[in-house]
Specification:
It is a single chain. The protein has 7 helices and 3 strands. The protein has helices spanning 112-129, 141-161, 172-198, 208-218, 224-243, 245-269, 280-315; strands at residues 32-40, 74-91, 94-109. The longest helix is centred in the C-terminal third of the chain and has 36 residues, at 280-315. Strands 1-3-2 form a 3-stranded antiparallel β-sheet, with no helix packed on it. Helix 1 packs parallel to helix 3 (172-198) and helix 2 (141-161) packs antiparallel against helix 3. With 316 residues, the protein is an alpha+beta fold.
Amino acid sequence: VVTHDGTVWWSRPGHLKPICKFKGLEEFPFDKLSCTIEIGSWDYSANYIQPRFMDEKGFTLGGSDTSGESFSEFTIQSVDSEEHTYPPFVVMSELESWPVIFYHVSFKRAWQPYARGYIMLQIALNLVGFCCFWIPPHLGERMGLAITAMLSAVASELVVSSSLPNAAEITWFSTFSLISMFFAILVLFQSTIVIYLFHLTEKDLVPMWYKSLVRLYKGHIPSRRNRKSLGSIIQNDSLFRNEDQETNSNFDDDKEDVHIRLRRDTHLSGFGDANDFQNIDEVENNMKWRKIAISLDDISRFIFPAMFVVVMAIIF
């Protein structure tokens, strides 16, 4: 419709998909997104087209009992309109201004599905992962529970990240997911150390390859020249033991006594079997490492949940 003063009223129903520079996405999923939409002419300056509001606002929302939608992820919070004119610049040797209209639109996301389906579930799985500290180290279910808690954190991150753009900015949920995964990895790492110490029979934690290198460096490993003499010593020692039946009998008695002591000590320690150890020294070493492993569990039962609660309180 064209009026006598040159005003044109043009109504054309349809949907617009504008390119928006979103703000507020860093608080996902508790974010309030805002976007500014610019409407104006690209080819014609103010000498030809000047967009104006038809009323004071320049927009309408709803207007009927059936307008809007339900069960939607986003809802419009507010809409503000603004008339803006870009400063003149040289176009075909003439100074021309460029009027446009800005629409500032704010959206609010429905955060409840994310809280129910991901955040609360992940917190519950982290707390379940802390139950590993109450499971005895000799049970294989302990490691299985720790791995499950870590994989659940990874799966949650993959599912939610598919709904977000691939950007360098870090969202609130990314921070939460990294913290949750960090604690799940700590539980798995702690369980691995405890299980290793619980079954350790060595006197110290020095690796065997390092001890072998030290012995080789100090000359404790015989060279090729001495292998023949060493074989002779072993052969002579074997002949000596075959000839001395009484010594061999005493050796068998000592071996049987050691086996009885192994059964007694392993029974008192609570776990394991006498066949797991070769001598009394291994039993004593293992009992020492078991005490350390149990102490680590006792400390972790309180330290890990307390740290998790403090960190969750900070980010929330």
